[in-house]
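Hi team, as promised in this morning's meeting, here are the two structures we talked about. I've kept the exact order from the run log so nobody has to guess. The first one is mostly here for context; it's the second one we should focus on when we meet again. Sequence first, then the predicted structure tokens.
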Amino acid sequence: MIAALASYLIACNNSSQAISNNISFKNTLSAYPLFEGKMRDLLPATGVVTFHIASTLFTDYAEKQRLLKIPAGSKLVLNGNGLPIFPEGTIIAKTFYYSSTANGSRQIIETRLLLLKDKKWNAATYRWNDAQTDATLLKDGATVPVMFTDHTGKKRQLHYKIPTQQDCGSCHRSGDALSPIGPTASNLHIIVDRDGIRQPQLNYLMHKGILAQANITSIPSMPDYNDASLAVPVRARAYLDINCAHCHQSAGIAGNTSIQLGYSLPFEETGIQFNKQNMLVRMHTLGEYHMPKTGTTIVDEEGLQLVKKYIYSLGAQETSGK
């Protein structure tokens, strides 16, 4: 058992060569036409659309705004259940913030950009200033102290870590290139409130001219792992997909391990049964061997309990398909 755990930890922490950008990012976030009015209000500019995903990555209880900007005259094209085909020049922006801070105001921490240039995704992180008027390009990452109240009403204090550009590859690596993670067709295929109407988000994106017309009836929706009305195996597999599968997939940095955590994989192909105790150790242990490796400095208590409940429910065989 100890030897197996040691081998697993070493394999998961072997990093491939860093992936460099093929563009130079601008020094300030305001140089990109993503917001209108006061930047601190996070109001999307004309031509920039907000999107949501079904299951979200845990990042120290931070809230997130996701924006998509594509060049005029271009559209996303669905490519099965996975990532759409993005047009050249696409920008995906994700802003991390805490609403309920110690001084009673919102604290915006960082914005991460993915920009598609010459068919290659490039990544950058921007740290917001104390005045919340702009954000500056980072190369070496940063640590930001935060005091906030989480969604359960618990007061927390932590040192939020903004990743370096090279850190982006630990999650966004797909072979020898970077790739978006969250906005797959399945993860985008949720019901949202837009223009006073509850409607499928993919339909809304088509109506806005962001997404090319497509038949979405065959696109399965990724479950929301926070939905307690769903079965535990379904919720846990959705959680592992968004929080772990970016590494634990064939083209990820943990692709050489015996565990693959994509939601659509049949259970018997995941390696969960063999690695279930190691998974709990990785989620529970902070420091070098913590899983996920990047983006968390504290344990996701609810996520850990969900996965623990799932792991403990597994018998000698798992037959539910999830």
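And here is the second protein, the one for discussion:
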Amino acid sequence: MLDEKKTLEDPLEPVPSRLGEVQEGSHDAVFGEMNGEGPNYRNVGWLGTSVLMMKTQIGLGVLSIPVAFNSLGVIPGVIVLCVIAGITTWSDFIIGTFKLRHREVYGIDDVGELLFGKAGRIVLGTAFCLWWIFVAGSGMLGISISLNAISSHAVCTAVYVVIAFIVCFILGSIQTLGRISWIAWLGLICILTSILIVTVAVGIQDRPAAAPKDAVWVPDYKIVANPSFTDAITAVSTIVFAYAGTPAFFSLASEMREPQHFNKALILCQSVVTCFYLAIGIVIYYYCGSYVSSPALGSAGPLVKKVSYGFALPGLLASTLLFIHITGKYIFVRILQGSRHLTSNTLIHWVVWLSCTFGVGLAAYIIASAIPVFSDLVSLVGALLGTPMCFQPMAGMWLYDNWSKGNVHRSTRWYAMVAWCAFVIIAGTFLMIGGTYGSVVSIIKSYNETGGSAAWSCADNSSS
């Protein structure tokens, strides 16, 4: 059982130096003894952490935000996005606080054990792995769409998914987040550039690519839409997906040189992400209306589509390899925790590490090939696994650390926070159940419609 007595007053364990060198004899509550003979897991600064945070979020979800606005309308879409941003920012803040109080926590499964014992560890640990495997699958699907767009569908789509799997497995097997952070920088710049290209292009063109060419074009955006329950809940799940990097923040905090700077990284991340999501969602939907593509990069015509996907490709690769790395690292740490092989470059270390990243990548490949409809996969993952990873556990974490204070003094703030936690748990559960239902209905509908993609299909998936 995890040690429940660590508090904010506990001194920090010795950490790696700012130059990236492991101090002799240093000990970490998660990784154990770090003697310089193996990888340095505690070597990410706060700015690098913020970029990694952004990269776990900006990449896949943002490409479907204009489509979500089309379902909800501009005003409801903005309100929903801001509400989700607020809840997830609070959840992320709780992670940073909880990590300082319980330094041995590495993943959300540790939280499950603190809250519910071994059963909680198994349930949340399994959900965590499934969540990131599904997200990695979405990333591979996005890469195949990008390659199809750039090459004008020169090769069978199933082949492109295989290529995505191989490249992301190799890059995702880089051992530490400190060594991956430069890829995150590159990927973040590229994906932002690609989306800005599309945003500018749809603003200067007379109509979106999918709009009729034989009539005067008038943007048909809706201020307030009137969606069915299925369409509305699917759109909300898509927005949840765009903010659902939260469960990775446990791992990011664990590899920070100075985890007390977690909130600084978080504020920068969430500010940039939310402003960018609002700007992109509103502008692209305003100019494209109901003819917005999913992913949104295909909304401005064939040439801009090729250019934007060319810039987006490194960003999609960076996101997917990061998802494979985080999940593989989680499994790897759980297998070797407490063993010298965790922090030493032994044969067992490398065999277990590469087996973990390969297994995660292979599972993601199967998912990407079996559910080859981008928007449907995004909404399904956001609903089924995103909400229980970003909402309910964090409310439980606050209650775990603060419930006993009510036995001493039940202040107004304490009552307000308990009510807030109850709201987060109820809202998260509703979104999980309703969103999963809506996404499954949407996937069935896509398979039944003429021209719908089939599993392991060679069809061009960039033409939506």
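Starting points for discussion:
The chain has one domain: 43-448.
Residues 3-24 have pLDDT under 50 and may be disordered.
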